[in-house]
Write a structure and sequence with these properties.
Nitrilase/N-carbamoyl-D-aminoacid amidohydrolase, six-stranded mixed beta sheet
């Protein structure tokens, strides 16, 4: 399976322009025999939604989105979803002109410069899903920082975790380096869930924030097999073998002894002690 990492710099609020550049990259990927093209979080709308005076959210069944998946490769695309009453930070998996899966970001950060709860509502489900290439799950940016979500995806059979992201460079004068944290997190996730991890981050400057890129693919042993450059737009192609997931999970069956009943009992206890949400 050949994956194209579309590390882009979208234009805030310019949905039409972003759709045009997105389609061009999909066509370029198709010309290089890509089976899947992955774009960053909110790649059609931009991240700093509070800077916009108008609503730029899109319906998931917008025909312009379906057109993106008619050039050959499957597509993972990020957008602000119009959910009628609520808006969602969503990533759609599109294939052959149809939507296969819609993941709504579950954990919306509300600290430092991040104010996602002002502009979107959290999703309510975490599901793996079948594609023509294998079984996938999507985790949008901060979702991947919640340890239980990659585990849940793997328990649901996911062989590939797709992680569209808007990760900025250092936000404070302290020692926190997002690029270093992401590297360690992605390697750990791939090793412990014994799956492929496809991380696609954006680049460019938006509303005083600079995004660093560094998109990459990690194999089920935790080895980084492809890395995109930092700070610049790029289209990086990498071949992955999904049978490696089954080999790795057979070698060391970390996921087989989940003890879901035990977890349910302990979760119910914690819910009863602390409240339902």
């Amino acid at each position: 399976m050949r994956v194209a990492l579309a590390q882009t710099d979208c234009r805030l609020g310019d949905v039409d322009g972003n759709l045009t550049s997105t389609e061009q990259l999909i066509k370029e990927s198709a010309a290089q025999d890509a089976d899947l093209v992955v774009f960053p979080e909110l790649s059609l709308t931009g991240y700093a939604l509070g800077q916009l005076a108008e609503d730029i959210s899109l319906w998931p069944d917008d025909p312009r989105l379906a057109e993106l998946a008619k050039h050959g490769p499957d597509v993972v695309i990020g957008l602000l979803e119009d959910g009628r009453i609520r808006r969602h930070n969503s990533a759609l998996y599109l294939s052959d002109g149809e939507m296969v899966h819609n993941h709504r970001k579950l954990y919306l950060p509300n600290y430092l410069i991040w104010e996602e709860r002002k502009h979107a509502s959290p999703g309510q489900t975490m599901r793996a899903f079948d594609t023509r290439h294998g079984r996938f799950a999507t985790l949008i940016c901060n979702d991947a920082w919640q340890p239980m979500l990659p585990w849940l995806a793997a328990q649901d059979g996911a062989e590939v975790l797709v992680v569209p992201t808007n990760s900025a460079a250092k936000l404070t004068g302290g020692s926190f380096d997002p690029a270093e944290y992401w590297h360690d997190l992605l390697v750990f996730t791939a090793r412990m869930q014994q799956c492929w991890v496809i991380f696609v981050n954006r680049v460019g400057d938006e509303a005083g924030v600079r995004f660093w890129g560094g998109s990459r693919v990690i194999d089920p042993w935790g080895s980084v097999v492809a890395t995109a450059p930092t700070w610049e737009e790029s289209l990086t192609l990498v071949d992955i073998d999904l049978t490696a997931v089954r080999r790795r999970r057979r070698e060391i069956p970390l996921l087989a002894d989940a003890r879901l009943g035990l977890l349910r009992r302990e979760l119910e206890r914690l819910i009863n002690e602390s409240g339902p949400d």
